[in-house]
């Protein structure tokens, strides 16, 4: 059974930083595509950052230069480092995994609030 467990959300002031973590179990982490999505109140869930099976990364335009996705294969963990946070980054952030068989899984979500 594939499980994704997120941590690291919280309240931060504008301009601050947070690092989200997602520990993955039950699948071949090295062959999975991993990503982070976010959903603000009343809005759809949107892709923030993606680590493809080929090892490349991509970001939505609004976070380029501020957010970084990374993986630690020894810990089966994917991270999202978020710097220079803005109030518009406030959302529930979800970890996403697409396995080698293209099955999709989601974490439970972690709240990120950027406010002074």
Description:
This protein is mostly beta strands and 116 residues long. The chain has strands at residues 3-7, 10-12, 18-25, 33-39, 46-51, 57-59, 67-72, 77-82, 91-98, 104-106, 110-114. The strands form two sheets. Strands 2, 4, 5, 6, 9, 10 and 11 form a seven-stranded mixed beta sheet that branches. A four-stranded antiparallel beta sheet has the order 1-3-8-7, with no helix packed on it. Strand 9 and strand 10 (104-106) form a beta hairpin. The chain is globular, with a radius of gyration of 13 Å.
Summarize the structure.
With 116 residues, this protein is mainly β. 0% of the residues lie in helices and 52% in strands. It has no helices and 11 strands.
Low-pLDDT segments: none
- Quick one: biggest sheet? 7 strands, mixed
What is the SS-derived class? Answer: mainly beta
User: What global shape is seen?
Assistant: globular
Strand portion, in percent? over 45%
Q: What oligomeric state best describes the polypeptide chains here?
A: single chain
Average pLDDT rating: 96
Order of helices and strands: EEEEEEEEEEE
Strand runs, count: 11
Task: Please tag this protein with its features.
116 residues; 4-stranded antiparallel beta sheet; 11 strands
Walk me through the topology.
Blueprint: E1 3-7, E2 10-12, E3 18-25, E4 33-39, E5 46-51, E6 57-59, E7 67-72, E8 77-82, E9 91-98, E10 104-106, E11 110-114
Parallel strand pairs: 2-11
Antiparallel strand pairs: 1-3, 3-8, 4-5, 4-9, 5-6, 7-8, 9-10, 9-11
């Amino acid at each position: 059974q594939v499980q994704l467990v997120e941590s690291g959300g919280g309240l931060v002031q504008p301009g601050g930083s947070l690092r989200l973590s997602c520990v993955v179990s039950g699948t071949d982490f090295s062959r999975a595509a991993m990503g982070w999505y976010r959903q603000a109140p009343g809005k759809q869930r949107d892709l923030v950052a993606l680590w493809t099976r080929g090892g490349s990364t991509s970001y939505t335009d609004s976070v380029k230069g501020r957010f970084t996705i990374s993986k630690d294969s020894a810990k089966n963990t994917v991270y999202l480092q978020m710097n220079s946070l803005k109030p518009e980054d406030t959302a529930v952030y979800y970890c996403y995994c697409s396995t080698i068989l293209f099955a999709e899984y989601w974490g439970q979500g972690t709240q990120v609030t950027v406010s002074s």
